[in-house]
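Q: Given only this backbone (964 positions), what sequence would you predict?
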């Protein structure tokens, strides 16, 4: 409210008294904000009265300062249009334009790939990249990149030559990107899952004359005439036969030559290629390396597709700093449980992901206090920020368009996030941020305006789109010769200079990290021959955002399912609306424009969509499953043949549903199963098979040549084979690495069944399971600790049956005999022993009661993915029950068996500080074999020998003696 008193009331004339007016503060505000003006002695005086629930004094002071500047400017130029009057004084303008943009540093003039080459020259044996199956050190990575660079140079690639890269997520992906950069070319990442039409358009639009592929991509893709295809796997495989091809001489690159071109969604219905120069990439890499303190010894998890520009930070930047890259496969990256286990297994120290992925990880209870985390791609909800801050080490909220090279701002979460928006922070090095109005003038602190970005990170523009480039990349009015990128994002400056993000000012949206032009989806919908008009809207916010598409049909009524299939041929999966609806007409505003706010919500759309006629649940299992779907999707009723994703489901709701299924049915289903079994009917059909799988004792740990006998690893005392994951990973790199590995889990580990109580009973049951998979020898057996005891008994029974045992490997296993193995902690309860072995502080663990110790172990098991299926506390109790039974079986085991095969024994060099498990004496094993006892000592103690780096030593030793 504004009140103007033109003349102040005169004081009353009172006989014998002097009177003067006094301002009276009521201590309350009737309105959100009231401005009172009055004239006194030819001057205008003002007072602001405000609600302290909405404003603080500093905000009101800034607002009144701006008002005074406006009134002063109006008085100085009474004929000027109001819109041209300034709101900022000189001091505030200096602050927002210059002081908060003082980010200048000496320019990064070295191309990023040259820094990787220097690392390879200095430390060629240092780990560079691995994907769980294969690994490359810096020397091997640089050599592979050089081999590709030589081939590309031979094909005529040079500076600014576009080279499309369609390589699956493996160690070859960073090698391919580096190979293109070494040749001087510009890499254009192409996701192998993109529709063929989109890939064909990208190849044609980018002008790529070479396409680098791996796997079966070459057979699946349609390549325009004149495009040469280079199969990277085949190229590297032929090096030995054809002789090494030297890398080309370093290309003469200028900082303005292009490093890569990323295709993003376009409003015209076609994606547009953003051209990023080496200058921008080098500047970004240097800032992130310093900000994250990246160094040798770090492991950066690569979870993002290369066609999303943030993958640059995961695949390339770490290599320039000497760190290692762990390439996570696509299915694991989409599943919060699997991803959490993977991040723990690879000991990731830096993880970057979108809020949707972080939400999944936090829902699993995953914690990693040492991880440096980055969250970006879309707005970070404050509740998620708080969970991340509590569970992780350093957490950064980052922001940036592709057009300004990955991230342009960063904000470290150093305190509680509060209830408001989480700031996106301040500028990276050599980056300037301007919050401007429609006249390109700075707005006051606290006022929303459009964000413009300038500096070394600004891209060259859009490939082949000069008009669009001119519209989005504009002259910098505050830096002579500079350029600004118009982001289309609404932000405001906070009092400390950080930025707060509000949303888009145009038709772009962010859905699970992907920037999408609604117009591109609408153009694809309108391209269907039966569609008359189309519209797309986003419903929900943050991790719950869902794309919904709406159409009106032409003369004939169309099929929404066929329309969805049509879109999947035209668009990437993340751009296909989860819900499609046919309307009689699209809602319009009074001026005839589309009224997006009047479009139906997904829940209403899902109930009226043109689906297969609803089939009600037909039995108790389908009814229970359908109710779970209704709770998660908030849609009812649901038929057993309704598609989960057509009903508005997405990956986060899928994650929630699978958790509900596990609690309801006691069966863990992999998240990716829902993408194949998208109905209640099909998902229910998978339950018996999943229950049977949970009861299976023999589980695959690694794929390999089916013609070779597999290695069979027997569980230790805890009953699980998760402990062997690092050993299996190391075996993949051994000379006999192309070998299947199978694991034997305890009875009762994944099911409510009572565990077996005798070693002989276990051996008999396990051999029955093994013979179903491997009917005849030769057999290769190994086990750690108690697993070695069971493996020995299995070997004895196999030889007694006339089978050949070609290998028996024992890791820190005591020989069976008349006296049980001594244990300094035998008096400790199994729960306490397990807690100490799992890494809990021994002193603190011994001070906890059983419930508190169980809670601590549940948290630890959720962090490292070591708990078996089922609810965490029940799973842990099952594990302890199995461990107790296995311990008793070990103590009771006696045998006089003598094997024909050699015994390979590895014992540890150290004793655990708290558990004090005695060192294994190898001599009692000699009379147990008629062959040779081959003994070696490995680093670590009994409880850490299967953890990195000790597991790598055991893997190399084991792989070196396994029969080829």
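A: Predicted residues:
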């Amino acid at each position: 409210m504004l009140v103007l008193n033109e003349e102040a009331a005169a004081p009353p004339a009172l006989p014998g008294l002097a009177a003067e007016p006094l301002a009276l503060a009521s201590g309350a505000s009737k309105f959100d904000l009231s401005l009172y003006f009055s004239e006194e002695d030819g001057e205008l005086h003002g007072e602001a009265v405000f609600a302290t629930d909405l404003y603080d004094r500093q905000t009101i002071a800034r607002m009144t300062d701006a008002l005074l500047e406006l009134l002063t400017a109006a008085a100085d130029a009474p004929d000027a249009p109001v819109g041209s009057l300034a709101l900022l004084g000189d001091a505030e303008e200096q602050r927002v334009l210059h002081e908060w943009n003082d980010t200048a540093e000496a320019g990064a003039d070295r191309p990023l790939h040259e820094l990787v080459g220097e690392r390879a020259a200095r430390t060629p044996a240092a780990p560079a990249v691995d994907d769980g199956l294969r690994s490359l050190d810096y020397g091997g990575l640089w050599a592979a990149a050089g081999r590709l660079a030589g081939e590309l140079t031979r094909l005529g690639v040079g500076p600014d030559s576009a080279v499309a890269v369609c390589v699956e997520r493996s160690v070859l992906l960073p090698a391919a990107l580096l190979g293109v950069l070494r040749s001087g070319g510009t890499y254009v990442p192409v996701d192998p899952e993109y529709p063929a039409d989109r890939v064909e358009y990208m190849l044609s639009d980018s002008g790529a004359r070479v396409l680098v592929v791996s796997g079966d991509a070459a057979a699946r893709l349609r390549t325009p005439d004149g495009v040469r295809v280079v199969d990277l796997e085949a190229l590297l495989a032929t090096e030995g036969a054809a002789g090494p091809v030297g890398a080309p001489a370093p290309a003469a690159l200028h900082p303005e030559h292009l490093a890569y071109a990323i295709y993003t969604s376009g409003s015209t219905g076609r994606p547009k290629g953003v051209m990023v120069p080496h200058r921008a990439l080098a500047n970004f890499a240097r800032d992130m390396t310093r900000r994250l303190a990246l160094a040798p010894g770090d492991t950066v998890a690569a979870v993002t597709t290369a066609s999303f520009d943030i993958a640059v930070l995961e695949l390339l930047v770490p290599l320039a700093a000497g760190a290692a890259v762990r390439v996570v496969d696509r299915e694991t990256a989409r599943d919060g449980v699997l991803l959490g286990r993977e991040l723990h297994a690879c000991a990731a120290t830096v993880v970057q992901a979108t809020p949707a992925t972080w939400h999944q990880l936090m829902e699993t209870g995953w914690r990693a206090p040492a991880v440096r985390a980055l969250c970006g791609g879309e707005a970070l909800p404050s509740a998620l920020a708080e969970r991340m801050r509590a569970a992780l080490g350093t957490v950064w909220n980052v922001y940036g368009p592709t057009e300004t090279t990955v991230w342009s701002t960063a904000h470290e979460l150093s305190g509680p996030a509060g209830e408001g928006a989480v700031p996106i922070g301040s500028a990276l090095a050599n980056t300037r941020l301007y919050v401007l109005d429609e006249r390109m003038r700075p707005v006051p602190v606290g006022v929303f305006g459009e964000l413009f970005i300038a500096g070394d990170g600004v891209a060259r523009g859009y490939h082949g789109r000069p008009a669009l480039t001119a519209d989005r990349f504009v002259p910098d009015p505050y830096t002579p010769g500079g350029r600004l990128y118009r982001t289309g994002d609404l932000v405001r400056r906070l009092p400390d200079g950080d930025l707060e993000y509000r949303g888009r000012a145009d038709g772009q949206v962010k859905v699970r990290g992907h920037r999408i032009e609604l117009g591109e989806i609408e153009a694809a919908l309108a391209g269907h021959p039966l569609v008359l008009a189309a519209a797309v809207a986003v419903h929900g916010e943050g991790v719950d955002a869902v794309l919904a598409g709406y159409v009106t049909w032409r003369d004939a009524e169309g099929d929404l399912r066929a329309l969805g299939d049509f879109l999947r041929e035209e668009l990437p999966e993340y751009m296909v609306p989860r819900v499609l609806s046919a309307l009689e007409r699209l809602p319009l505003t009074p001026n005839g424009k589309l009224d997006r706010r009047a479009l139906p919500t997904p829940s209403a759309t899902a109930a009226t969509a043109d689906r297969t006629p609803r089939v009600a649940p037909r039995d108790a299992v389908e009814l229970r499953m359908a109710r779970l779907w209704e709770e998660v999707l908030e849609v009812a009723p649901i038929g057993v043949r309704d598609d989960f994703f057509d009903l508005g489901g997405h990956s986060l709701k899928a994650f929630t549903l699978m958790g509900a299924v596990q609690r309801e049915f006691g069966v863990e289903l992999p998240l990716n199963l829902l993408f194949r079994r998208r109905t209640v009917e099909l998902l229910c059909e998978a339950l018996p098979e999943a229950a049977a799988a949970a009861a299976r004792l023999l589980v695959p740990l690694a794929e390999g040549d089916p013609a070779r006998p597999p290695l069979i690893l027997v569980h230790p005392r805890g009953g699980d084979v998760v402990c062997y994951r690092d050993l299996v990973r190391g075996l993949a790199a051994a000379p006999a690495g192309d070998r299947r590995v199978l694991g034997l889990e305890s009875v009762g580990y994944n099911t409510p069944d009572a565990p077996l109580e005798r070693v002989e009973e276990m051996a008999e049951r396990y051999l029955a399971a093994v013979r179903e998979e491997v009917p005849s020898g030769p057999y290769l057996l190994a086990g750690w600790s108690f697993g070695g005891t069971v493996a020995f008994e299995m070997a004895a029974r196999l030889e007694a049956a006339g089978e050949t045992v070609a290998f028996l490997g024992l890791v820190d296993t005591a020989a069976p005999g008349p006296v049980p193995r001594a244990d300094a902690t035998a008096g400790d309860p199994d729960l306490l022993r397990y807690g100490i072995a799992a890494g809990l502080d021994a002193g603190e663990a011994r001070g906890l009661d059983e419930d508190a110790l169980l809670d601590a172990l549940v948290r630890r098991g959720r962090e490292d993915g070591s708990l078996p299926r089922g609810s965490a506390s029940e799973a842990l109790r099952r594990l302890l029950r199995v461990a107790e039974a296995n311990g008793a079986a070990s103590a009771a085991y006696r045998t006089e068996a003598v094997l024909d095969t050699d015994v390979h024994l590895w014992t540890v060099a150290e004793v655990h500080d708290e558990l004090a498990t005695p060192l294994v004496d190898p001599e009692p094993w000699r009379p147990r074999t008629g062959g040779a006892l081959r003994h070696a000592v490995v680093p670590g103690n009994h409880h850490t020998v299967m953890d990195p780096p000790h597991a790598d030593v055991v893997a190399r030793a084991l792989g070196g003696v396994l029969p080829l």
